[in-house]
Write a structure and sequence with these properties.
This protein is α/β, with parallel strands linked by helices and 312 residues long. The protein folds into two domains: 42-106 and 271-309, 2-Layer Sandwich (Pantoate--beta-alanine Ligase, Chain: A,domain 2), CATH 3.30.1300.30; 109-267, EpsJ-like (Ribonucleotide Reductase Protein R1, domain 1, Orthogonal Bundle). It contains eight helices and nine strands. A five-stranded antiparallel beta sheet has the order 1-2-7-8-9, with helices on one face. A hairpin with a 5-residue loop joins β8 and β9. The longest helix is centred in the first third of the chain and has 67 residues, at 8-74.
Length: 312
């Protein structure tokens, strides 16, 4: 009678085949894992090297910005305008590994939030002008009070404290001046749309920084006085081509402006600039911002006060 069971040799060959298939599968998985890890390691190394290279280019752009600011000062015009030497952008320029570009903007042409610090002597004057800016942007004037309270270092408690503590991630108000404009996102009454509307027109600079009427935008120019309309501000702005040699010249150019309220809050010269470098290496974008101060007189020069990486 013929047996119906498989022969022992056939069974052994079947088991050997399965073992071989398992070994090949395991080897394939291990090799794929090693290749994946190697690819990730190579990508991390490349990104780290490119980041260091971009950092070096950013420092070079800072030096370039400093030279341009000194050159503009040496011209002796006595004022800064939107078409000054420092305002000319550096177009995308080829460098090893990619391109670099740069743009410098005048922060004196914006409203300095730190002028609202309750500890500052003329805070009340600047608060009135900030309300005018909020009105020009069609924003809630109550935001001025929230910003002032955010910086108040003397008050033990404010009406906004409960709002901050009730957030999903609770926090407390700063009790100090702003270090960066992006802090506005934390202030009560400032949502995403409000911040997007306000951010282009405000800065975070040392207290007492005046507004440059040559480089200020229309909403900021409307802080010249309560009677300044949008049409008057646009006439002063001159499509970004204002070249006033003194604040008193603004009234001559705009007769309808009877008086500039608190003229000491305005100037035609600038001391603070934002240098922005846009660097692309191997298709990877890097953005660097540098807050630069240009000091005049003895002991002056160019000073980098703050560095930030990444867009706001």
């Amino acid at each position: 009678m013929k047996s119906t069971f498989p022969q022992c040799g056939n069974l052994q060959r079947g088991v050997a085949l399965l073992v071989a298939l398992l070994v090949v599968a395991l080897a394939t998985v291990l090799i794929a894992g090693l290749l994946d890890r190697g690819g990730l390691a190579a990508a991390r190394t490349r990104n780290a090297l490119r980041a260091q290279q971009a950092q070096a280019y950013a420092r070079g752009l800072e030096n370039y910005a400093a030279e341009v600011l000194v050159r503009a000062q040496d011209q002796g015009l006595g004022y800064d305008a939107a078409d000054s030497v420092w305002a000319i952008p550096l177009p995308p320029t080829p460098v090893p590994g990619g391109t670099i570009a740069a743009q410098m903007s005048d922060l004196n042409g914006r409203f300095n939030l730190n002028n609202l610090d309750p500890a500052y002597d003329t805070q009340g004057i600047w608060r009135g002008k900030f309300v005018l800016l909020l009105s020009a942007l069609k924003l809630d004037p109550a935001i001025a009070g929230h910003v002032v309270a955010w910086m108040d270092a003397t008050a033990l408690a404010t009406v906004d404290d409960q709002f901050y503590l009730a957030q999903p991630v609770p926090y407390r108000r700063a009790g100090r001046p702003f270090t960066h404009v992006s802090e506005l996102r934390l202030v009560a009454g400032v949502d995403g749309d409000t911040y997007a509307a306000l951010a282009p027109y405000v800065s975070a600079l040392p207290e007492g920084t005046p507004i440059n009427v040559n480089t200020a935008g229309v909403p900021v120019l409307m802080t010249l006085g309560a009677n300044v309309t949008q049409e008057m501000a646009q006439a002063i702005w001159q499509q970004g081509g204002a070249h006033f040699s003194g604040v008193d010249q603004v009234q001559k150019a705009q007769p309808a402006l009877a008086v500039i309220e608190h003229q000491e809050c305005f100037d035609v010269r600038s001391s603070y600039f934002l240098a922005r470098g846009l660097i692309t290496l191997d298709g990877l974008p890097f953005e660097f911002d540098s807050l630069i101060e240009r000091r005049s007189g003895p002991g002056g020069g160019i000073h980098v006060l703050q560095r930030n990486r990444g867009g706001d």
